[in-house]
Design goal:
The structure is a homodimer. Helix content of chain A is 70%, strand content 11%. Chain A is built from 5 helices and 3 strands. Chain A is mostly helical. Chain A starts with a helix and ends in a 5-residue tail after the last helix. The radius of gyration of chain A is 25 Å and the shape is rod-shaped.
Amino acid sequence: MAILSRMANQSIELSDVFYALGDPTRCSIVGALGGGPASVSELAAPFDMALPSFMKHLAVLERSGVIRSHKAGRVRTCELQPKTLSKAERWIAEQRATWEARTDRMVDFVEKLHQEELSRDQCDPDKP
Amino acid sequence: MAILSRMANQSIELSDVFYALGDPTRCSIVGALGGGPASVSELAAPFDMALPSFMKHLAVLERSGVIRSHKAGRVRTCELQPKTLSKAERWIAEQRATWEARTDRMVDFVEKLHQEELSRDQCDPDKP
């Protein structure tokens, strides 16, 4: 039960991370922060958007743990939190790996069936 | 210009994928489909949710390319599309790698400064 509840919690946290990335503006902010920490005004400059709306996007990213920010004087600086990104990356990789392992097992099974069929045909005295 | 527009398109498609994953129910559906294709009723069973609401979640996942479905008779079967998951995984890995490469360069720079300071101190005749 504890494990299930942990899994559910993890799933909720991860869905927050994906939700934060699930918007073109927020994806672009993450891309920009890959180059290093940046102030809110530097990050906002390329976007044709009112500052309060832009700040809401930053708040979604910060709440999910994708970025963090700190204020020095009047300047708020944001930076990526690579650990959160790692967690999301690992989750996707795990789902893909489970799927691929299953597909590999299916291919092995079909190949085995095919080989058995071939060897049966070769031993069949009625076969031309 | 063409490159920029391609990047923007890619960013929009990716944000659709993250948006699709940005919900605990849809995260759980992806987890369940890691084990192999499943019918809509099999997938819906663990959720205390009306079928039309559940179908909306499946539609979001299908529109983003995270899953695909086909109907045979009266049964609709869903399966993961690992290529879409790979794309999302690669994007996250790239953002993380850019960030980490920058951090590594910064660490090198600070270490070099520190070494230069140390050797200056050692050569300083006024130093005790």
